[in-house]
Amino acid sequence: MGKIVLVFVSLLALVQVLAVDAVDRVKIWPMPESVSHGHGSLYMNKDFELKTEGSKYNDASGILKDGFSRLLHVLQVAHVVDGNSSGADTSLLLQGLHVVVLSPDDELQYGIDESYKLSVPASGKPVFAYIEAQTVYGALHGLQTFSQLCQFNFKTSVIEVPMVPWTVIDQPRFSFRGLLIDTSRHYLPLPVIKNVIDSMAYAKLNVMHWHIVDTQSFPLEIPSFPKLWDGAYSISEQYTFADAAEIVSYAQRRGINVLAEIDVPGHALSWGIGYPSLWPSKDCQEPLDVSNEFTFKVIDGILSDFSKVFKFRFVHLGGDEVNTSCWRVTPHVRKWLTKHRMNESQAYQYFVLRAQNIALSHGYEIVNWEETFNNFGNKLSRKTVVHNWLGGGVAKLVVEAGLRCIVSNQDKWYLDHLDTTWQQFYMNEPLTNITNPEQQKLVIGGEVCMWGEHIDGSDIEQTIWPRAAAAAERLWTSYNKLAKDPRQVTGRLAHFRCLLNQRGVAAAPLAGPGRVAPEEPGSCYSQ
Ligand SMILES: *[C@@H]1O[C@H](CO)[C@@H](O)[C@H](O)[C@H]1NC(C)=O
Ligand SMILES: *[C@@H]1O[C@H](CO)[C@@H](O)[C@H](O)[C@H]1NC(C)=O
Ligand SMILES: *[C@@H]1O[C@H](CO)[C@@H](O)[C@H](O)[C@H]1NC(C)=O
Ligand SMILES: *[C@@H]1O[C@H](CO)[C@@H](O)[C@H](O)[C@H]1NC(C)=O
């Protein structure tokens, strides 16, 4: 009896999915700027090849070649591709991808051109799909889109590209599309971080904000101050400096920048495990001792080391949730404040601005959490990007003040808020109430935040996905192509979520609030 009911429910679900499918056949996520398709089909040749004739980019670093290998891997990982297409009409056999990259340069940096054009003809002799991009990173986005056009054909056991011919013209709406990971609250092993990076590339996110250290632990080796990582949880939960370089390089080869953060002067208690003089006192350990020159020497050493591996234009200096009561109650700090005629809030400002100057001296522009702006916005370096998190309406004030902004309002874009739904993630609009085009340009993008208090390597993927994907479309897709009602994209997002599962990413179901487990038996597409 139970089974019959279940079958019936599943059938209903299937009918629903098919109905949605009929009106929404383009399953690409995030939705490109422009897409057109036909009704033919091509079959991928067994020796599907990469061709780069006419490219000004020589791929000495192998970024494109590796991207192509990963494309083949994600296409082949789902099923055994052992069909014999040698009897097929050769004009329908897709021989490979012809990729033309116009810029010889493959430096990954904020604001690079990420656009691409992808076309797949209906037939030809021989027939090649074609990607043209200004940069190799735009071409990588083109490969991601191409991968989403393909599907395994169960009759012939080969990979098929249905609905040819395809023409896709695409570019991102925002140049900063971030995901925060937090390796202080829980250590994340390298393979976990690399899996997150791979999955980010599937959704065309392009900044991994690495909140490396915080109150609870200091896992990263800092060559200039080798006792800092005494603050790690354990001897195994650490990153060598070479590990950090490896993460940066792994991300860069996938078109993803790494934004490194030290969150000062609050959120830094763990620094004092190795260097107790960074604490105001043994009994009052946070924020960092503002009165001690050594504090700024350490920040200088860290940022000097950072500048050797974290090549992104920005470094994040935190600056949020600073509780200055330790400065008030610690005699030597209080004495210093009096001597310098500063009250606690002036000392907070002094600390943040001094840290900013150190970052500038190492060639960085700065990201700071919004409290710095809320307290002394007109004193911040003009090279500051204000990182919103407390709530809505901040971006508007920031850009009116002429500074740049990243949007991460916690009520909508904090992944650790487990009851925030994917629909809320999707509908969170960074330019809300900002109408002046010059001010709109100052909102450089947004970021979803996977704070680590309650997640670790065991459940990070299903907490990030699929909700981060909803935000990824908001950040990638041009405003007029975004759904006004998230119900319009449910089927397509479910498809992307199942695609992530097929690629080995533990993305959670869509149905229900926030991160959920599957509620009942049924097709992936209806969960
Ligand atoms: C594929 O099919 C052709 C005939 O259509 C046959 O000659 C060839 O041996 C087959 N190859 C394989 C690997 O099965
Ligand atoms: C600030 O820290 C002190 C102890 O260091 C604590 O007693 C106080 O409650 C904190 N204030 C806030 C607003 O969290
Ligand atoms: C600190 O001093 C400034 C400048 O005199 C003043 O505006 C501010 O209200 C003071 N803050 C506190 C918390 O006393
Ligand atoms: C946008 O403006 C409206 C009307 O002033 C206001 O109610 C709303 O809270 C604002 N939204 C944000 C996110 O600032």
TrEMBL record:
<feature type="domain" description="Glycoside hydrolase family 20 catalytic">
    <location>
        <begin position="174"/>
        <end position="478"/>
    </location>
</feature>
<feature type="signal peptide">
    <location>
        <begin position="1"/>
        <end position="19"/>
    </location>
</feature>
<dbReference type="GO" id="GO:0030203">
    <property type="term" value="P:glycosaminoglycan metabolic process"/>
</dbReference>
<keyword id="KW-0732">Signal</keyword>
<dbReference type="GO" id="GO:0004563">
    <property type="term" value="F:beta-N-acetylhexosaminidase activity"/>
</dbReference>
<dbReference type="Pfam" id="PF00728">
    <property type="entry name" value="Glyco_hydro_20"/>
</dbReference>
<feature type="domain" description="Beta-hexosaminidase eukaryotic type N-terminal">
    <location>
        <begin position="28"/>
        <end position="149"/>
    </location>
</feature>
<feature type="active site" description="Proton donor">
    <location>
        <position position="321"/>
    </location>
</feature>
<dbReference type="Pfam" id="PF14845">
    <property type="entry name" value="Glycohydro_20b2"/>
</dbReference>
<dbReference type="GO" id="GO:0016020">
    <property type="term" value="C:membrane"/>
</dbReference>
<dbReference type="GO" id="GO:0005975">
    <property type="term" value="P:carbohydrate metabolic process"/>
</dbReference>
<keyword id="KW-0378">Hydrolase</keyword>
<protein>
    <recommendedName>
        <fullName>Beta-hexosaminidase</fullName>
        <ecNumber>3.2.1.52</ecNumber>
    </recommendedName>
</protein>
<dbReference type="InterPro" id="IPR015883">
    <property type="entry name" value="Glyco_hydro_20_cat"/>
</dbReference>
<keyword id="KW-0325">Glycoprotein</keyword>
<dbReference type="InterPro" id="IPR017853">
    <property type="entry name" value="GH"/>
</dbReference>
<dbReference type="InterPro" id="IPR025705">
    <property type="entry name" value="Beta_hexosaminidase_sua/sub"/>
</dbReference>
<dbReference type="InterPro" id="IPR029019">
    <property type="entry name" value="HEX_eukaryotic_N"/>
</dbReference>
<comment type="similarity">
    <text>Belongs to the glycosyl hydrolase 20 family.</text>
</comment>
<dbReference type="InterPro" id="IPR029018">
    <property type="entry name" value="Hex-like_dom2"/>
</dbReference>
<keyword id="KW-0326">Glycosidase</keyword>
